Amino acid sequence: MNTALITGASRGIGLGIARMLAEQGYGLTITARGQERLDAVTAELRDLGADDVVTVAADLADEDAPAAIAAAHAARFDRLDALILNAGVGSAGNIAEFPMKRYDKTFAVDVRAPFMLLQQCLPLLRTTAADSPRGARVIALGSITGVYAEPGLAAYGAAKAAMNSLIETLNVEESGAGISGTAIAPAFVDTDMSAWTRESVPQESMVGVQDIVEIAAMALRLSRQAVIPKIVVGRAGTDGYRA
Ligand SMILES: NC(=O)c1ccc[n+]([C@@H]2O[C@H](COP(=O)([O-])OP(=O)(O)OC[C@H]3O[C@@H](n4cnc5c(N)ncnc54)[C@H](OP(=O)(O)O)[C@@H]3O)[C@@H](O)[C@H]2O)c1
């Protein structure tokens, strides 16, 4: 049985990826802050075909959360085929006025937590890659703002640029042994996270959750020889280089 660990699996893109993997019979560890919502999602994922579902309610801004999440997965499963570093936060504000408290929160959740979770999961990813023709995969949710600068999104963009670099370094260090990563870097995706911008960015122009799910599914189907560091997804009505 293949297994995956998905952060931010209670809503939006993370839930879409969790549903796709449940339909493929994966064993899943899912995390987010709210236990109640995770319980509701667990029931749905089991109905869809998930082999087993472990939930961990944790705030990724907490320093110890990544280790606890990795330990919960390792306690139930003896392999990790797909690590989905999806949970993220972000808020708008120009550099001149951006509060450092919000900067610290963004970097804690979007950079420190995924780095530490990857570090904690590497032993199991290595074990899995050693005996799997597809190796083991890491899918990370970056953002187009981490690739092409967007006014008003400096902290978020810088955090997401760090994600691209983390995945590229992972590929240099580990892909020869079968663990490779892909950062998906989309423009606005139609989820709760982008609701604040619906007045200026038409909802119907936003990338669909299912588009991101399809990209993740494709990356997980590849052989261990194929390494795709980054996939940028532009939005209809733009030149493809704007959020
Ligand atoms: N939507 C977009 O326009 C867009 C565009 C580019 C990239 N992305 C990236 O895609 C990823 C998923 O975004 P989304 O649009 O699906 O977001 P979303 O709908 O807001 O969902 C975010 C998920 O992360 C969890 N989460 C939020 N803060 C958390 C924290 N501090 N600790 C643990 N879990 C937390 C949420 O659950 P709880 O609230 O229960 O904790 C939820 O499951 C993010 O990394 C985001 O930056 C999104």
Q: Gist?
A:
The chain has helices at 12-23, 35-48, 65-76, 100-130, 154-174, 209-221; strands at 3-7, 27-32, 52-57, 82-85, 136-141, 179-186, 230-233.
Describe the structure.
This protein has 243 residues and is α/β, with parallel strands linked by helices. It has a single domain (3-183, 207-229), classed as NAD(P)-binding Rossmann-like Domain (Rossmann fold, 3-Layer(aba) Sandwich). Helices cover 42% and strands 16% of the residues. The chain has helices at residues 12-23, 35-48, 65-76, 100-130, 154-174, 209-221, and strands at 3-7, 27-32, 52-57, 82-85, 136-141, 179-186, 230-233. Strands 3-2-1-4-5-6-7 form a seven-stranded parallel beta sheet, sandwiched between helices.
- Strand percentage lies at 15-25%
CA distance, first residue to last residue: 38 Å
- Number of DSSP strands? 7
Annotated CATH homologous superfamily: NAD(P)-binding Rossmann-like Domain
Number of domains: 1
The CATH topology is Rossmann fold
Strand order of the largest sheet: 3-2-1-4-5-6-7
Helix content: 40-55%
What small molecules are bound in this structure? NADP nicotinamide-adenine-dinucleotide phosphate
- Helix count equals 6
Overall pLDDT score: 97
Largest sheet: 7 strands, parallel
CATH-derived architecture? 3-Layer(aba) Sandwich
- The low-confidence runs, each spanning 5 or more residues with pLDDT under 50, are none
Organism: Mycolicibacterium chitae (Mycobacterium chitae)
GO molecular function: 3-oxoacyl-[acyl-carrier-protein] reductase (NADPH) activity
EC number: 1.1.1.100
Keywords: Oxidoreductase
